[in-house]
Amino acid sequence: MCFEKKGYEVYLVGGCVRDLVLKRTPKDFDILTTAELKEVMRAFPHCEIVGRRFPICHVHVDDAVIEVSSFSTTGRKFGKKSKSSMRRPSGCNECDYIRWNNCMQRDFTINGLMFDPFARLVYDYIGGMEDIQKAKVRCIIPANTSFVEDCARILRGIRIAARLGFRFSRETSHFLKELSHSLLRLDKGRIHMEMNYMLAYGSAEASLRLLWKFGLLEILLPIQASYLISHGFRRRDKRSNMLLSLFASLDKLLAPDRPCHSCLWVGILAFHEALVDQPRDPMVIAAFCIAIHSGGSLSEAVNIAREISQPYDTSFQEISEPKFSYSKDELMDEVIRLAASVKAALRRLSDENLVSHALIQYPQAPQSDLVFISCTLSVKVSSIFDCVRKGKNRRFVAKRGSEIDFESLALGRLDEVRDIFGRVVFDTVYPSRLAKL
Question: Which of 43, 88, 297, 383 is the one with CA 20 to 30 A from 328?
Answer without folding.
Answer: 383
